[in-house]
Amino acid sequence: MSVWRCRVCEGVNQGGRVCATCGAEVPVGEPLRAAVRTRLPSTTPPAVPPLPTRRELYGYPTPEEYAELDPYESDEPESGYSFVPLPGGCLMTFAPGRGRGL
Fold first, then answer.
1. In the structure, what pLDDT confidence band is assigned to residue 18 with cuts at 50, 70 and 90?
2. Domain assignment present for 61
3. Which of 1, 35, 58, 61 is most buried (most C-beta within 10 Å)?
4. Mean pLDDT for all residues in the chain
5. Is the separation of the CB atoms in 17 and 25 below 8 Å?
6. In total, how many domains does the chain have?
7. Per the domain annotation, does 60 fall within a domain?
8. Helix, strand, or coil here: 77?
9. Measured between alpha carbons, how far is 98 from 102 in angstroms, rounded to an integer?
C-alpha cells in the first residue's frame, strides 16, 4: 500500500484510487501524488550539561559569600574610582591617584 495525496482536497490517503476525504477518483492512467512524510520531533529531552569540576568552581564565591558583600564598598579603596548607584544607572567617578601626574 502506498500513501498518496489527493489533487482535489490535498487529503492524505493510504492505498486505493478513491480519496477517503472528498471521494474524488484518480483516473487509471494518472500517477498518484506521493504524500510527503514529516518527521516528528524527538520526544526525548535535551541532554543535561555536565556538572562543573572542582577546578572550575575554584575561585568563584558561594552564594553565601555574595550575600555578605556590601555593594557600596570597593574591594580596592586605592583604585581611584568609585561607583554611586543612581536611579536609571550608576555614576562612576575617577580620582587621580598617586604617581599619575594629574
1. very high
2. yes
3. 35
4. 78
5. yes
6. 1
7. yes
8. helix
9. 9
C-alpha cell of residue 89: 544607572
Q: What is the 3-state secondary structure (H, E, C) of 38-91?
A: CCCCCCCCCCCCCCCCHHHHCCCCCHHHHHHCCCCCCCCHHHCEEEEEECCEEE
Rounded CA separation 57/65 (Å): 14
**H/E element, 91:** strand 89-94
The model's pLDDT over 66-92, given as tens digits with 9 standing for 90+, comes to: 777 766 665 555 566 777 888 888 888
Q: Which three cell numbers stand for residue 56?
A: 572550575
Q: How many residues does the chain have?
A: 102
> Residue 37 and residue 3: Cα distance in Å, rounded?
9
Q: Is residue 59 part of a domain?
A: yes
**Rounded distance, CA 91 to CA 82, Å?**
8
Least confident of 11-20, 22-31, 48-57: 48-57
Alpha helices per DSSP H over 15-77 = 54-57, 63-68
Residue 21 is assigned to a structural domain of this protein: no
The whole domain housing 72 covers 54-94
Local structure of 37: helix, strand or coil: coil
